[in-house]
Amino acid sequence: LFVAEGEDLVSAAQDAGFAPVELLVAGEDVEPALLAEVATLAHPPRVIGVFRRPEPSAEAVSASLSLWRISDPGNVGTLIRAADAFGAAVQLSEGCADPFGPKALRAGMGSTFRVPLRAFEILPGSVALVASGGVPLEDFELERYPHIVLGSERDGLPEDVAARCDVAATIPLRDGVDSLNVAMAGTIALYARRRKAGV
Amino acid sequence: LFVAEGEDLVSAAQDAGFAPVELLVAGEDVEPALLAEVATLAHPPRVIGVFRRPEPSAEAVSASLSLWRISDPGNVGTLIRAADAFGAAVQLSEGCADPFGPKALRAGMGSTFRVPLRAFEILPGSVALVASGGVPLEDFELERYPHIVLGSERDGLPEDVAARCDVAATIPLRDGVDSLNVAMAGTIALYARRRKAGV
Predict the structure, then answer these.
(1) Three-state SS annotation for chain B
(2) Interface of B with A in 124-163 (CB under 8 A)
(3) Among the ranges A135-139, A143-147, B143-147, B158-162, which has the highest mean pLDDT value?
(4) Which of A12, A112, B131, B161 has the fewest CB atoms within 10 Å, i.e. is most exposed?
(5) Looking at residues A105-113, what average pLDDT do you find?
(6) What value does the CA radius of gyration of chain B take, rounded to a whole number of Å?
(7) Site from A114, A170, A195, A196 to mutate, B interface, most B CB atoms within 10 angstroms
(8) Burial of B136 from C-beta contacts in 10 A (0-12 / 13-18 / 19+)
């Protein structure tokens, strides 16, 4: 089960076809003070919904963002939102933050209910996004590599995972700058792929 | 004055030429328990530096990201980091989160000390980034509009501010998706401008 806090998330879940196991509305089903106590939000929500987690998506994916041990829930949610915006599924490895945890759900802004979520797997046509040493992102036929693989915040992608991808790409940055936040890097790669694919 | 918590931020400030007004090292200048008590971090830092805020930058800017009432400190810090990565100054309006507050500084990852920070102003060659109705981002000569103007998380850019820009641009998203997080949108625009400018 997972909990969606606040009207926006609850209605996004329902719009996506999730039926609540339990729906608690302040002043109707439950005392407002009790709802405020169990909520993780600074401003207590008017409604909390309890839903059943979906099964991992079994659909074939034509484009995806694969997350390797991305442990910050805000990053996981933001990347799911970006994948939704640019039309990609999301694959999560072990060690990733739970996409249905409260912080990740909030950052996902409802996209978590719409994006196909699957287990991590290197698919044919994968590009590893690395902080340095890869081909500059737009210098090759990105439309041939619809599966983007992103490493953890601190350590990036381990060599053996990157080696299983077809190519490695790097976002060119100003000299002297180390890296972008992983959520920024993934968003740029999703944008660049979609622009090149012309969809 | 502002406070930098942790060795990474303190050395980034010093590397950028900020001299500490006060430098507190746990176990040397101060009791570790006292440092932990004043710190805003979950894991108490070994060092805290107190520095003088810089004057707003008076240098001419060849590229910039202008933030209109972006109130979330994480977004302000992330956008400053992206501006650093792609070589742009940052202009902040009234109502923006303080870039030297603890959360914004952390999200800035040291970029806050390197990026020229200025007051908000619409410069010639400005493009307003809007959620809908603008020219698709890459369909015009972005290199002619080096100044990107971004509105607040909730309300975007007010019409009178957008009208003072030369053009309005929109990032094309999948049908049915409302918008990107403001930090994502700004990062994509900085990336796209730099790619087109070829610098």
Answers:
(1) CEEEECHHHHHHHHHCCCCCCEEEEECCCECHHHHHHHCCCCCCCCEEEEECCCCCCCCCCCCEEEECCCCCHHHHHHHHHHHHHHCCEEEECCCCCCCCCHHHHHHHCCHHHCCCEEECCCCCCEEEECCCCCEEHHHCCHHHCCEEEECECCCECCHHHHHCCCEEEECCCCCCCCCCCHHHHHHHHHHHHHHHHCC
(2) 138
(3) B158-162
(4) B131
(5) 95
(6) 18
(7) A195
(8) exposed
CA neighbor of B10 nearest in space, from B56, B52, B51: B51
Question: Distance (Å) from the C-alpha of residue A164 to the closest C-alpha of chain B?
Answer: 27
- Indicate the pTM of the whole model: 0.92
B61, pLDDT greater than 80: yes
How far away is chain A from the Cα of B187, in angstroms, using its nearest Cα?
A: 7
Dihedral angle of Cα B59, B147, B181, A154, to the nearest 10 degrees: -50
Which residues on chain A are in Cβ contact (under 8 Å) with B193?
A: none
B181 CB near a chain A CB, below 8 Å? Answer: yes
Whether B174 contacts chain A with CB within 8 A: yes
- In this structure, how many other beta carbons lie within 10 angstroms of the beta carbon of residue A119? 11
- pLDDT over 60 (residue B199): no
Percent of chain A with pLDDT over 70: 99
| A184 with B87: Cβ contact below 8 A | no
Contact with chain B for residue A170, Cβ under 8 A: no
- B168 Cβ under 8 Å from any chain A Cβ: no
Judged by CB atoms closer than 8 Å, whether chains meet at A81 and B188 is answered as: no
Residue A199 has pLDDT above 70, yes or no: no
Q: Does residue B170 register a pLDDT over 90? A: yes
